[in-house]
Structure formats: structure tokens, C-alpha cells
Amino acid sequence: MSPFTTPSARQVNIGLLILRVIVGIVFVAHGAQKVFVWGIDGVTAGFAGMGVPAPAVVATLVAFGELLGGIALIAGVLTRLASLGLAIIMVGAVTLAHLPAGFFAPEGYEFTLTLAAASLALMFAGAGQLSVDAALAKRRR
Hints:
This protein is an all-alpha fold. It has helices at residues 9-49, 55-75, 79-98, 110-125, 132-140. It has one domain (9-140).
């Protein structure tokens, strides 16, 4: 069995851990920036300028969703739920903010699309065995 064609369970779990932690760090950084640097009022103003509906509500949901969802991914707790929420946030970011700028960064949607795909992958795959989710499942058994 080659690790390049059929990964072991350990390799899959390490891969999920790496994906979860790195994507989680990115979301924590962006959520913290929205909450602690720009503030909810600043994010609301930015969203209003982009034509986001109900910008105050969406700004609060996005800022805290990214911050808390990122923390959840890092720990691997409620991973599927957090990933779904983060994927929804990123699809919103693609369609409401980045799509008109085209594909490529810095203003395009390639980064937010990548985060949406990573979030969806974690939603479908789950946290893996190296997570709080797995430890809680093991305790329930």
C-alpha cells in the first residue's frame, strides 16, 4: 500500500488536522480584525458601501462567525457546523464583494473561493481523530 495512492488513517487524520488548523487560523485572524481592529461599526459601514443587505446584522454575524468558527476549527469542535457556517460566509463574500473584481487577488474571489472549498471539505470530511469532536465521540461510546 503506497502512501501516495492509498493514505493510511493516520495520514488522513494528520491531513485533516493541518487543514483545520491553518484554515482556522486564517478565519480567526480575519474575524479578529473585524471585531478588534475595524470594529463592528467599521465592518457595517464597509458592508453598506458594498450593498450588502442588512449590513449591521450581517457584519456582526460575519465577524463573530469567522472568529468563533475559526476557533472551533482549530480545536476541532463542532467542526461540521462551524465549517458550514464559514462556507456560507465565504460564498456570500464571493458573490457580494469579490465577484465583480474577477478571479485573481487581491480584490478577486480566488482566496474566498478557496476558503469556501476548504470549509466545505471539512464539513463533509469532519474533524478527524485528532480533534475535540473525536474525543467527545469516544467518551460517548
